[in-house]
Amino acid sequence: MLTSVMKQYMKHIYLLADPTDQVIPLQVANALGVYPSAVSRMTRKLADYGLIKYEHYRNLRLTKEGKQLGQTLVKHH
């Protein structure tokens, strides 16, 4: 089950994603007002849920499921 903080991250990742569904982690940190290390910890958790693909020191990429969740979160807020 996703927490409200996880949903907030997913919403911002979705909104920041480029046409190839990639996001630079520093963009997420800036948008949420958190340290990049906090983004790294959260992206590992979101990757465990299959919502993003994440490689250390690389961009994040939304999975199909992550993109669908992001769309749903944006519609509901």
Q: How would you describe this structure to a colleague?
A:
- With 77 residues, this protein is mainly α.
- The chain has a single domain, classed as Arc Repressor Mutant, subunit A.
- It is built from four helices and three strands.
- A three-stranded antiparallel β-sheet has the order 1-3-2.
Keywords:
globular; 77 residues; Arc Repressor Mutant, subunit A; mainly alpha
- Order of H and E elements: HEHHEEH
Q: How many β-strands, per DSSP?
A: 3
- Which sheet architecture does the biggest sheet show? 3 strands, antiparallel
Structural class: mainly alpha
Provide the CATH architecture.
Orthogonal Bundle
Count of structural domains:
1
